[in-house]
Amino acid sequence: MTSSADHLPGRADPADGAERDGIERDGIERDRAVVTAPAAGTPEEPADGRTAARGAGHRPRRRLWHTNWYAYLFVAPSLFGVFAFLLLPLLIVLGLSLFHWELLSSPSFAGLANYRRLGGDGETWHSVWVTVLFVLLSIPAQTVLGLLLALLLNQRVKGVAFYRALFVVPWMATPIVMGLVWTWIFDPRDGALNKLLGVAGVSGPDWLTDPSWALPSVALVNVWQYSGYTMLFFLAGLQGIPQELYDAAATDGASPVQRFFQITLPLLNPTTFFVTVTNLVGAFQIFDTVYAMTDGGPSGSTEVLNFRIYETAFRQFDFGYASTLAALLFLLILAVTLAQVRFFAKRTTYDLS
Amino acid sequence: MTSPRIRTIAAVLGAALLSTATACGGSGDSGGSVTLTYRLWDDQQKAGYQKVMAAFEKADPGVRVKIELLPYDQYWTKMTADAVAGTAPDVFWMQTSQFPEFVTKGILADLGGLKLDTSKYNANVVQSYTYKGKLYGVPKDFGIVGLLYNEDLFKKAGVTMPDKLTWAPDGSGTLLETARKLTVDDNGKHPDQPGFDAGKVKQYGFASWNHYQTQWMNWVSSNGGKLVDKPFGKYAFNDAASVQALQFGVDLVNKYHVAPPAAQTNPPSDKINEMFKQGRVAMFPANNALLPFVAPGANFKIGIAPMPAGPAGRVVNINGLSEAVYARSPHKEAAMKLARFLSGPEAQKIMADGGYVFPALDGLSQGYLDYWKQKGLDVSPFLEESRGATFNLPVTTGFTAFENKLNQTFNDMYLGKLTPQQAADQAVHDGDALVK
To answer: Under 8 Å CB-to-CB from A339, ≥6 apart: which residues?
Structure first.
């Protein structure tokens, strides 16, 4: 997130930046007031991240080091984390992808052999397709649902704090446990879902053992789990839009629908950007839910790329090729994220004054 | 929505690198007291092994043992990483499906030096850990598949468990007959009665589902089929006898309707376990190691019977565990002492009397029987089976890699989407591709 914010337009002007920082902080204050206890930590992260990135960007380098060395001291622990647990493993994985290494035997240099193998590996490309399908099934639904929930829960209604917390609960649950509970719900004979459909006179499908239903079922669980989480961010975004804009629009005679499409949606772009990037990355990396619900089946219909990586590394112990697959997933996510950055770069303003 | 597995890869690699670095500074057997690491995966058995190790330390005051418990789903990953890094524990549990991988890579020490009298141990367990004529694991215990049944359901239906259950590919034999009597739909009809509704079954007579260890491998073996052509060989379960046997397992579900549909029971679901515990399935083949997990929570009386005999007699799965010594252990001498102790009657008796396992050493099973008798269970059919014909899980390389694919293919078979011949051909093809 932080690095992608560097590419956003309008960063060069320090004055402008300082002002925006001020607003950003205001936003945080407001977020704090709104969000209920269980989630209090979360909405700050993106805002803080952006502020930090910007602050580092628009001062000359030398001066920064002399006056702000203590700042580096403070970020040192997390920088260490980034190096030790992010960059180093990434480099190791990229390096390993150039080796033949079945654990328990010694690695041998393979050059690009693993990548050539990837080219002709139909099963992996099938997994890529399954992953893309999964993303398409879950992300749009999750985003729209999250936004709708946020609009709904942005009202001043009694007990709204309770509902906000309620919708975030699925996100806090362990995916493995969630997966298990959902397999009970999806059970074709005794499951709650088909029992309910039965009352309505519909005979439900074999959700998890029918290859055409398994992936949508897993995606449904994912949507259910992350919509509330997505809502949190939209809620924070909504609170950051100044009321004056709505007042002015209302004075000009704009209808609620117009206000939504002309003010709310465009000004939510920073949030939408953050939410779609992080959710998309998450969806590309989906693993636990698949592991708990279908183990990649039936007939490979839920065998997402991350699941194949797991299979290759921990069931076949072929770490060289697993690293190659991990590199492929990394590149895929990078490409999609860059595309999103470009898309939102032209359409986003952080200046809400 | 982060991916813990990917982070695990990184962590394992990091740990591997770090531990190689530190391992260089390790110490040897330099007199004084030595501390060995002993690794296992069963938290119930850990309690038993604490007593075993206390006895060992008493007998050999120069050696201390640290017991390390790793949950099963991390055990082999960590074990593999440790073996790569050269820091595996001195003595650890080994199981048949992992043995080929570890022994062919030189991780396990040859135990010839212990000069064990292998004729005193369960022959099957000994054979499972013998590679090229040498023993690479101290025979520890065995688990065996038997038939658990719900005595209350039998009583209610007025059915008694036949003295000998039999099955045949054509549907004759006492197993199917008994299972039919115990299968009832919402209107009280049995599967061989007119008007039986297979879509609305209240109670099933038998659990037939896609589980290799307790299900289809037993059908195959008791019909004269073979799983692998020889130890460390290729898969062979697509011959005529095997396919016939597979067909029977599927027929129990889709043709005779005495077992719940595969859409409910296919792995990774553990629905069938639940259904047995809820009293909705009368007969349930299971390994005796499952008893501590099923027996305490059951609200009905559990009976135990030997598995049904097929045309080739009764042939059931036996799964032996062994204690392996790490070939590169810095305390090899002490590790061998511990291995010797674990092979002896004192250690194995503690484990038997605690009701943990059937020990691999002959003559100690009474302790296990007594333990369970006290809990109201007669487990002697398991023992009786172990004295008859048994078979092993396939002992060949690449089984871990094959397992999930095999399950997926056979899931389709139990759903009726692939014929047993198609499924077996495909599985054998996939499995052979992974044999090295």
So the answer is: none
Are B296 and B194 in the same domain? yes
Q: Cα-Cα-Cα-Cα dihedral of B342, B345, B346, B348, to 10°? A: 60
Residue with tokens 């009726």: B416
Residue with tokens 């014909």: B389
Same-domain status, B399 and B418: yes
Query: Is residue B39 located within the same domain as residue B111?
Result: yes
Please name the amino acid found at residue A170. Answer: P
Question: Phi first, then psi: what are they for B408, rounded to 5°?
Answer: -65, -45
Counted domains in chain B: 2
Which sign, positive or negative, has the C-alpha torsion B21, B24, B30, B35? positive
Residues B171 and B76 in one domain: no
One domain, residues B312 and B430? yes
B170 lies in some domain? yes
A53 with A136, same domain? no
Q: A271 in a domain, yes or no? A: yes
Instruction: Compare CB distances from A103 to B3, B84, B268 and report the shortest one's residue.
Output: B84
Classify residue A3: in a domain, yes or no: no
| Residue A300 touches chain B, beta carbons under 8 Å | yes
The model's pTM is 0.81
pLDDT score recorded for residue A352: 63
A187:B407 CB<8 A:
no
Average pLDDT of chain B, as a whole number: 90
Greater pLDDT, B227 or A297: B227
CA distance B226 to chain A (A): 24
Residue B27 has pLDDT above 70, yes or no: no
Angstrom distance (rounded) from CA A265 to CA A260: 6
CA dihedral for B370, B373, B377, B382, sign (positive or negative)? positive
Q: If DSSP codes are grouped into helix, strand and coil, which group holds residue B412?
A: helix
Give this complex's ipTM.
0.77
The half-sphere exposure of A161 on its side-chain side, counting CA atoms within 13 A, is 10
* Pair of tokens at residue B205: 């007579």
pLDDT in tens, B242-279: 999 999 999 999 999 999 999 999 998 889 998 999 99
Residue B286 belongs to some domain of the structure: yes
Q: Which of B7, B262, B268 sits opposite A295 (nearest CB)?
A: B268
B395 in Cβ contact with B403 (< 8 Å)? no
pLDDT digits over A263-304, tens only?
999 999 999 999 999 999 999 999 999 998 998 989 899 999
**Same-domain status, B78 and B158:** no
Residue in B84, B264, B434 closest to A104 by CB: B84
Residue in the block written with tokens 């628009």: A58
Enclosing H/E stretch for B67: strand B63-69
Facing residues of B286 across strands? B146
Helix (H) or strand (E) holding A80: helix A69-82
Burial class (CB in 10 A: 0-12, 13-18, 19+), B291: buried
For residue A103, is it within any domain?
no
Which residues constitute the domain of residue B418?
Answer: 144-317+395-434
